Amino acid sequence: MRLKTFAMTALIGALSLPFGALADVTLSTSNHPDPVIDAEVSSFIDSHVTQILEHERASVQALETDAIARILANFKPQAKPTPPLKVEYTKSFLAELPQATGGEALECLTEALYFEARGESVKGQFAVAEVIMNRVSSAKFPNSVCGVIQQGTGKKYQCQFTYTCDGRAEVIHEKSAWNRLSKIARLMLDGAPRRLTEGATHYHTTAVNPRWARIFPRTASIGVHRFYRMPRA
Known about the structure:
The protein is mainly alpha-helical and 233 residues long. It has two domains: 2-73, no CATH class; 91-228, Cell wall hydrolase SleB, domain 1 (Arc Repressor Mutant, subunit A, Orthogonal Bundle), CATH 1.10.10. The protein is built from eight helices and three strands, in the order H-H-H-H-H-H-H-H-E-E-E. The longest helix is centred in the N-terminal third of the chain and has 23 residues, at 39-61. The radius of gyration is 39 Å and the shape is elongated.
């Protein structure tokens, strides 16, 4: 009976300590090499441990839902970067692609490629598209595809792309060429790599020799087109 009374007294004292301090408490209740705690003491221990666990569970459940959401938000996985588009400068590659669809930007870019480069190789057509997209990315030009293509339109031979101000109507006679060029336009609008012209913002055909071409650094020659980058200050 003394063993039980002493054990219960010691346990009550220990449980009155902070919960984390229990690991530092060592109880010695008897000199007997095999001390035994009877059923009443065991039941007492189980009861108090259960109370402590229930208290901890209630504390966790009391956390506000939005606080938990904020904590979990820090562990959301990062979105994987989109891999670059794979492009081949061949008609067979384009033939495997689905028909291009899109809005005004696709229409404008396809039209420019049709009237400016449909007689070029696929590589040359991509290069002309690069120039247009490089202009869209430059602060020196309008910031939209249609804005770039239509810049200066309305003043004969003062536009940026001759077909928009030569006084002739834009009529599409080669539907297959239009469909193929629309796929190039779609790829470029979707972020295809611009690796052919080294950042060129200007081009001309070999049929003309504009004065600015004597000053602008040439970056590439593809088919009948010559590509240039504006001089850096």
